[in-house]
Amino acid sequence: xxxxxxxxxxxxxxxxxxxxxxxxxxxxxxxxxxxxxxxxxxxxxxxxxxxxxxxxxxxxxxxxxxxxxxxxxxxxxxxxxxxxxxxxxxxxxxxxxxxxxxxxxxxxxxxxxxxxxxxxxxxxxxxxxxxxxxxxxxxxxxxxxxxxxxxxxxxxxxxxxxxxxxxxxxxxxxxxxxxxxxxxxxxxxxxxxxxxxxxxxxxxxxxxxxxxxxxxxxxxxxxxxxxxxxxxxxxxxxxxxxxxxxxxxxxxxxxxxxxxxxxxxxxxxxxxxxxxxxxxxxxxxxxxxxxxxxxxxxxxxxxxxxxxxxxxxxxxxxxxxxxxxxxxxxxxxxxxxxxxxxxxxxxxxxxxxxxxxxxxxxxxxxxxxxxxxxxxxxxxxxxxxxxxxxxxxxxxxx
Length: 398
Fold this sequence. Notes:
By secondary structure, the chain is of the alpha+beta class. The chain contains 5 helices and 15 strands. The strands form 3 sheets. An 8-stranded antiparallel barrel has the order 2-3-4-5-6-8-9-10. Strands 12-15-13-14 form a 4-stranded mixed sheet. Strand 13, helix 5 and strand 14 form a beta-alpha-beta unit. The chain starts with a helix and ends with a strand.
């Protein structure tokens, strides 16, 4: 905006001379603040949104008790029986989950004579996604290996043999035990919400698990099952990077420095003009117009042209600016990052991103279509050095 500074000061000087009052000069002071910078790790941090990450698992397989067992000839023997399991849990990060898992089956054992029992086992497990931890987070991975560790409780009943006596001096018919267990799950992704799982678990018990006390002090029950796992509430992971806005902040700092320099220049001109009062003639001094570029941007997720609810505020801001400047025209430029997808695919993706913002401005905020121009810059032009920052739409004045 053009300002006739000295014309105003000449009028003020005339008024001051007529009143015989000396005018005090004003000094323009620019204050600078010192900020302390804190280093942050420029890396993606992943988390699970509230309500997502839940799963239900169903399976069936075999059960094998490794206990003090021998046939009448004294040879070691192990019997296989059917086992069934049901579990549910939640991934509270891409790396760890908790699970409650239950098993039911029958135990066939032999210590000289052949005898049976039934058991039910309930475990609380901590599960670890090995591939996400060691190979990077990927919620679309086809195959995963998941070790787990658990504690729980087991109830065994209907013993038909054994030598452990109850308080009445008779062979015990049932017992409660507290095992610790560990195992490994192999997970194969079938579709978005269904996995095929194969799992093995070994549970460790005291010597009385088989209702026979002899030999080794630790007995083991092994379950191997296969089945399906169903995901609920979605299982994609969200991420944030504390350095996402550093480029934007640096640009704003650059604008502040430019404005500070312009202010200092105008301050010096003002001081020089005041020093010449009263002046014999009026000299017009123009302060340059400082026009800040449009800094609003709209960021997108990888391989997406959808404007998220978090980014809608930026589209709203540019719409309000255009309403406040009815003669202004804006160019909407869409970009894609060069490390994802081919050049031709990224060109179309950048055009779709620009189109999404264009549609919101015209349809939701009523901006006239002839005030907007769309351009898809693809991935050939990268605004930022950090690859992920280039999934973006920026605005400029036409």
